[in-house]
Specification:
Blueprint (H helix, E strand, L loop, with lengths): L10 E3 L8 E12 L6 E13 L4 E5 L6 H9 L6 E6 L3 E4 L11 H11 L4 H15 L14 H13 L5 E5 L7 H16 L3 E6 L10 E6 L2 E4 L1
Parallel strand pairs: 1-5, 4-8, 4-9, 6-7, 7-8
Antiparallel strand pairs: 2-3, 2-5, 9-10
């Protein structure tokens, strides 16, 4: 796979020829700060590679400030790499580390809004919404505005929005931050079910306590991914 320059879009869509749902190859990303002549360059990614095949849960681990979220945003398409390529299935969901929610909308209104964005018909949306309410146990907050939700329930809604359209690929950045123990267990039941159905998940964490739950784990060290 050849590298691309910064002015070429990064989110080329995979056609499934290699059997992968996501391939990030040779990804470089730097942030440039300040003004000339004191402008500085912070090189975050230095040739990182990530591959996800159907039906697997993959972890991405690194210290705080190692570039995990930068790599995730590059894979999603929020950031364009300076060099490298990204290919992914068009059927994907993204759960950012910090929930991006509308304070004055309820959980139901959020799910309705995202259902329209994903072009779900009302019947499919209703089924998916109820399933996620049950799986994550927050149906009692369906008509509650975000401004009245706890941090843990906001995290549940954030995850549900990434999953409402039942995508083939899920990209999750610290998805269980703020979860209590019961919800943490529910999360792993939910992800195991998705894997069994053939979906794949990339999960970012600054540490992994349950390594046996993952099929593979990448460590991000000095801007490069190393598979355990």
């Amino acid at each position: 796979m050849t590298s691309i320059q910064a002015d070429i879009p990064a989110d080329h869509r995979t056609d499934g020829r290699a059997g992968s749902l996501l391939e990030g190859n040779g990804l470089w990303k730097a942030y440039r700060r300040g003004w000339w002549p004191q402008r500085r360059t912070l090189q975050v990614l230095k040739g990182a590679d990530v591959t996800l095949r159907p039906g697997e849960i993959v972890g991405l681990v690194g210290e705080n400030g190692s570039g995990k979220s930068t790599l995730m945003k590059t894979l999603v398409g929020d950031l364009q790499p300076d060099r490298g390529t990204v290919e992914r299935t068009p059927s994907f969901g993204y759960c950012p580390q910090t929930p991006v929610l509308y304070e004055r909308l309820s959980c139901n209104e959020h799910l309705d809004l995202f259902g329209v964005a994903y072009d779900l018909d009302p019947a499919a949306l209703s089924i998916s919404r109820q399933r996620l309410y049950d799986e994550l146990d927050f149906a009692r907050f369906a008509d509650t505005r975000v401004e009245e939700l706890s941090g843990g329930t906001r995290s549940k809604l954030n995850l549900a929005l990434a999953m409402i359209h039942d995508p083939d690929l899920l990209l999750l950045d610290e998805p269980y931050a703020g979860f209590d123990w019961d919800t943490y267990q529910r999360f792993w039941d939910l992800t195991a079910a998705r894997r069994s159905a053939g979906s794949s998940l990339l999960i970012i964490s600054h540490f992994i306590a349950d390594e046996e739950r993952f099929d593979r784990i990448y460590d991000l060290v000095d801007g490069v991914t190393e598979q355990r």
